[in-house]
Amino acid sequence: MQNKIQQLIEESERSLAPQFHSLEQIAYHNQKKVLQAFQNNRIALRHFAPTSGYGYGDEGRDTLGALFADIFGAEAGIVSPNILSGTHALTVGLFGLLCTGDTLFSIAGDPYDTLHEVIAGKGIGSLADYGIAFKKCDLRHGEFDYDGIRAGLSDPSVKVVFIQRSRGYEWRDALSQKQIAAACAFVRECGFEGCIFVDNCYGEFVEETEPTQNGADIAVGSLIKNPGGGIAPTGGYIVGKRAFVERIACRLTAPSIGAEVGSYMYGYQSFYQGVFLAPHVVCQALKGGLLIGACLEKLGFETSPAVTRPPYDITRAIRFRTREELIAFIQAVQEASPVDSFVQLEPWDMPGYESEVIMAAGCFVQGASIELSADAPVREPYIAYFQGGLTYEHCRYALEKILEKIVRE
Ligand SMILES: *Cc1c(COP(=O)(O)O)cnc(C)c1O
């Protein structure tokens, strides 16, 4: 069996050579972009220094925001360890921009699972509790539904148009920058003057441009995903048009202080180093994901995106035939991890998710999904989502474990 598995992996690697080459070219482009932003912002050792208390004049914090803005082609940015996760960053962003009577309009279907309660929860301080309405327009066969978008925008209460770049827990490809650029242009053609807001989680550095370079006003994401490069210990970012970023800063802190406060006594080196490494790490994860996808496709499992298509985020979905295969896959990822490899995983009712989930995250940074990780709602159809991988070699090693286990099942 060992020989067969090695043969399958080596064959797949050979057939993926052209895709690997184009991913490496994207990584090089993005590495250059990041380095130029470091140079433009004259990053120096003093920017890594810790601060305490209010953090007035905290150069490390302010420059980190400017650096991210530069990388993302935006006017301003907030990058903070006080943004606790992607969900928190998105929540702060939405509450910063929307007032009672306004409507949030998602044009890429349902937002990510952890936003459902943020939008519509009852009696927990959700957008709905503050009188902010929500409506959505589903994608059609993975494309924006332009008629539906035009109809939705005829409602003058729409103040934020929301686009989720990544797939979330959906069997669809992530949106490409080309699709996002076309949708942003269309939304403007319809006369919309509010904020186009992109949930950028899992998408950073996958293509050569970011949504804020393609017509979006705000992009938001998590530092324990792509732009943290596996090094940032926590945090999130918000980049975009200055006026919007300032409003969001007032919501993150308080209206009187905005982005002027916030200290961090562990220093900022890991955030700077993380975003420096991120283009390379994202490329490793993409190559690893393609390899795992290619081998499982050869064994007859359906994967999304199909291996022949370019990836537009770092996640990949695999449809298994049974609950047992699904759980075996997730367990194999855990067993191949550098941390907590001995843990026997079980499905559980995780806060923020609507059905039982099982998650493999044997990570250095707790739950970091830029590290090789996998999760699945345990319900039909049995789809596992996996993402990340700090090194291609780790993904390859995990693949051996996965194949051993699945073939046995
Ligand atoms: C991960 C993710 C979120 C939420 O981020 P957390 O850090 O898990 O709170 C939101 N949207 C998308 C598309 C994500 O992938």
TrEMBL record:
Pfam families: Met_gamma_lyase. InterPro entries: Met_g_lyase_put (IPR009651), PyrdxlP-dep_Trfase (IPR015424), PyrdxlP-dep_Trfase_major (IPR015421). This is Methionine gamma-lyase family protein. It comes from Candidatus Borkfalkia faecavium.
